[in-house]
Amino acid sequence: MAGRVAGKVAFITGAARGQGRSHALRLAEEGADVIAVDLCGPVPSIGMYPPATEEDLAETVRQVEALDRRIVATRADVRDRAALEAAVADGVAQLGRLDIVLANAGVFEIQPALDLTDDAWREMIDINLTGVWNTCRAALPHLLEQGGSIVLTSSTAGLKGTPNTIHYTAAKHGVVGIMRTLATEFAAQSIRVNSVHPTGVDTLMIQNPKTWGLFMPDDPNPTREGAEPVFRSTNALPVPWVEPRDISNAVLFLVSDEARYITGVTLPVDAGYTAK
Amino acid sequence: MGKLEGKVAFITGAARGQGRSHAVRLAQEGVDVIAVDVCEQIATVPYPMATPEDLEETVRQVEALDRRIVASRADVRDAAALERAVADGVAQLGRLDIVLANAGIAPMGGEQNAAQEFADVVDVNLTGVWNTVRAATPVMIDQGDGGAIVITSSTAGLKGIGGDSPGGQGYTAAKHGVVGLMRTFANTLAQHRIRVNTVHPTGVNTPMVVNDFMQKWLEEDPTIAGAMSNLLPVEMLEAVDISNAIVWLVSDDARYVTGVTLPVDAGFTAK
After folding, report:
1. Among A193, A245, B88, B91, which is least packed, fewest CB within 10 Å?
2. What is the 3-state secondary structure (H, E, C) of chain B?
3. Is residue B208 part of a domain?
4. Within this chain, do residues A102 and A142 fall inside the same structural domain, yes or no?
5. Is A263 close to B270, i.e. CB distance below 8 A?
6. Which residue in A has a C-alpha nearest to residue B266's C-alpha?
7. Residue A273 is assigned to a structural domain of this protein
8. Distances from the Cα of B173 to the Cαs of A1, A77, B153, B157, B167, in angstroms?
């Protein structure tokens, strides 16, 4: 049976691990080739979990190739538009086309608003908001002729406010503005643009002592097991967090022809977090 | 093997249009169907409603896919009739996993009997959805396997576009109202792992939209016709586009999607 995105090429940022790797594999399973980028390195103001590495990105390459799909992977920072443009141009030269864009790269940090440094604010906005725009800016010229589908990874924090995440929440709300504007501006070229809004996803970005501590502030030694019931209480469905593949399945639906007339939509994949 | 193999769906308004498309699309994915439709005219609805022959055609198309279907005539305004249809269907098909509250009317434009026109569309499009969910959920809760409910709202459930007639006002109010039902049920049924979402189609190529009456209504009020254009370059969606969104929503691919208003509207609400 032909895959649901057979013959298409997807550009994915933050593809070294976590949701980005999951998206690359899920789309590859359904017949897509991949242009993958990741910073594969540290960001000074992000300290609560380790950064992805070149080995992580190499593992994504290995897993996509094990599915008999092609992948062109490079280290690139979403803050560097020229690097993104070069990565897309190189990928399109090798893979022949571009149909799908997943602006997935992002970072997360927890800080009380009044303790946040200017540098930390700027880095967050540069990566999680401007990085998304840079990704779209680099990719859109390649989509203009035949149309395509863009999915921006926002968050439940793109729809609701939560304490101690002002820079993250501001950036993830801003992503919705990018999505809505591009959806209207490029609809006539049959380019669809949507955002997904995950609740907590079981990756290092939330599975770290500082994030567990946000959910159990009175415990000096917070653990995954201890935080789990508190995470669970934030969702309507009885689950503490979701798997990367759950977000990939939503992304796959959105970029497939099954959703050929879905655009301008904020799609929560959040176990009812925002409905609660 | 279908992605919904072995499941059973209860679908209202299944005689034609989107309801028939959902029945057929789900059957293609391995689902058996409990189908109801009123199959008779409601006096305040100005276009011809579905017939018993239409419902028979849905039965024929589902059976042609080698799936089972238990179809009966029932009015979503009649809670007892829905409960009987569900009980009979579950007795024959063994279980219930999916509920599609799809039945609806669109009596825009008339103004012969304002109070009746408003009351009828609210009864069918809002109270009928409440009746549908209430008839189905006890079975799903007892089963203990979770489940998925999709309520068919409209772009008129997100924007005030029903026009200036009692039927249009009632339509818009009811389609907004089902969002409230969805959000409430999403919260109260989550503990049973029953997910509840709404879909919001723009104009779909079905007899509810493509009929002389609706065309006349659109032509007579240019503000409505202008407001009805989509963002993507497509005039009207096909019923299967809504069915595809529903197949995804009720599948395990969306196992953590609940409480969501999903427009399938070619960008209509994003304009």
Report:
1. B91
2. CCCCCCCEEEEECCCCHHHHHHHHHHHHCCCEEEEEECCCCCCCCCCCCCCHHHHHHHHHHHHHCCCCEEEEECCCCCHHHHHHHHHHHHHHHCCCCEEEECCCCCCCCCCCCHHHHHHHHHHHHHHHHHHHHHHHHHHHHHHCCCEEEEEECCHHHCCCCCCCCHHHHHHHHHHHHHHHHHHHHHHHHHHHCEEEEEEEECCECCCCCCCHHHHHHHHHCHHHHHHCCCCCCCCCECHHHHHHHHHHHHCHHHCCCCCCEEEECCCHHHC
3. yes
4. yes
5. yes
6. A261
7. no
8. 44, 48, 11, 7, 10
A135 and A255, same domain (yes or no): yes
Residue with structure tokens 């104009």?
A: B203
Regarding whether A236 and A176 lie in a shared domain, the answer is no
Quick check: is B191 in a domain? yes
Q: A180 contacts in B (CB within 8 Å)?
A: 270
Please tell me the distance from the alpha carbon of residue A151 to that of residue A135, in angstroms, as a whole number: 11
A63 lies in some domain:
yes
Judge if A222 and A107 occupy the same domain.
no
Residue contact B260–A250, C-beta within 8 A:
no
Q: B112 pLDDT exceeds 90?
A: no
Q: Domain range for residue A258?
A: 9-203+243-268
Q: What is the pLDDT of residues A97-134, one digit of tens each?
A: 999 999 999 999 999 999 999 999 999 999 999 999 99
Q: Give the residue numbers spanning the domain of B214.
A: 8-255
Would residue B142 count as lying in a domain?
Answer: yes
ipTM of model? 0.93
Q: Contact A246/B262, CB-based, under 8 Å?
A: no
Domain count, chain B: 1
**Tens-digit pLDDT profile for residues B201-253:** 999 999 888 888 888 877 877 677 666 789 999 989 999 999 999 999 999 99
Q: What is the CATH number of the domain that holds A110?
A: 3.40.50.720
Is A2 a domain residue? Answer: no
One domain for residues A67 and A125: yes
Per-residue pLDDT reduced to its tens digit, B126-185: 999 999 999 999 999 999 999 999 999 999 999 998 888 999 999 999 999 999 999 999
Q: Are residues A167 and A214 in the same domain?
A: no
> Looking at the domain assignment, is residue B267 inside a domain?
no
Structural domain includes residue A153? yes
Are the beta carbons of A274 and B259 separated by less than 8 Å? yes
Residues of B in contact with A239 (CB under 8 A): 256
A273 labelled catalytic? no
